[in-house]
Amino acid sequence: MSISLLVEPDDTSIRVRHAESSDYQSVIAVVNDWWGGRSMSDMLPKLFFIHFRETSFVAEINGEMVGFLNGFFSQTYPDTAYIHFVGVHPAVRKLGVGHRLYNHFFDASLKYGRSLVRCVTSPVNKTSIAFHKRLGFTIEPGNVQADGLQVNQDYDGLGEERVLFVKRL
Amino acid sequence: MSISLLVEPDDTSIRVRHAESSDYQSVIAVVNDWWGGRSMSDMLPKLFFIHFRETSFVAEINGEMVGFLNGFFSQTYPDTAYIHFVGVHPAVRKLGVGHRLYNHFFDASLKYGRSLVRCVTSPVNKTSIAFHKRLGFTIEPGNVQADGLQVNQDYDGLGEERVLFVKRL
Do B51 and A43 touch (CB under 8 A)? Predict the structure, then answer.
């Protein structure tokens, strides 16, 4: 897994497009590596690349896949869009790839009349928490406070605590 | 985890209702046990109980949760509904709980104009394959044939082969 960046990428060299089913293989092949070896692939079945393509995006630099985002429009809450999974290649972090992916998701959400965006993250993921705050997300009340954070214990299963984010577009 | 069945349940004693967010805790607490100890909970984040409630169901016998089904309407394919996850308590298998859950999903699909139902299963899960065939699902072409079955290799990640089912309502 090498990124052959001949030049430092600027904002314009990052291309974001809708995800296709065929992107799944390249994403799932790298996702555990991008998370530093954590086993994440069970959380990302292929269905997100097939059935939620309007709200799923891939970022490329020089034609190489360097990031992806999988989200959906809530079926139950007609004002809500939800971001399920986002990954950025470790070699290109802090270049705005994540930001660009989120902006595409926000645009798609507004286009389909969704004014509220929600997502969750693990409280240990301080980078993710800071990223969401920079993008204007606020943290929703939890059932405990830990490290000054509102946290929902056992949210995604036993021991799976989550911080809940919401942003009004 | 005990099922206190004073009488043998008949079809009428099985009650199926829409899933609520609050059902998630009781489902996620049993899902690994119901799969014989396999670690399945990562595949079932809470989002399915929040954002896809029209297509998610819980089955109860005497008020006790004995089965659940989580599905959704494809956002990309307007004719398609998809079943993501189904579980039935081992103590009440072969009593028609799964069948009842699928029928509720089929009814919801038709109500919202979805004529095609899709789902996938692992080729080692012979019980699941037989169940889907009994319900009228057919198996879609795979990229290999194994044990007389059409199988898609690496479908849900490396080594995660799947049999693809489809049923026209």
Answer: no
**Cross-chain residue pair A53–B42, CB shorter than 8 Å:** no
Per-residue pLDDT of A129-143, as tens digits, reads: 999 999 999 999 999
SS (H, E, C) chain A: CCCCCCCCCCHHHEEEEECCHHHHHHHHHHHHHHCCCCCCHHHCCCHHHHHCHHHEEEEEECCEEEEEEEEEECCCCCCEEEEEEEEECHHHCCCCHHHHHHHHHHHHHHHCCCCEEEEEECCCCHHHHHHHHHCCCEECCCCEEECCEEEECCCCCCCCCEEEEEEEC
Model confidence, pTM: 0.93
| Lowest-pLDDT choice from A56-60, A92-96, B140-144 | A92-96
Contact map slice: A 51-90 vs B, CB within 8 A? 51-55, 72-77, 80, 82, 84
Q: Which residues of chain B have a CB within 8 Å of the CB of A42?
A: 39, 42-43, 157
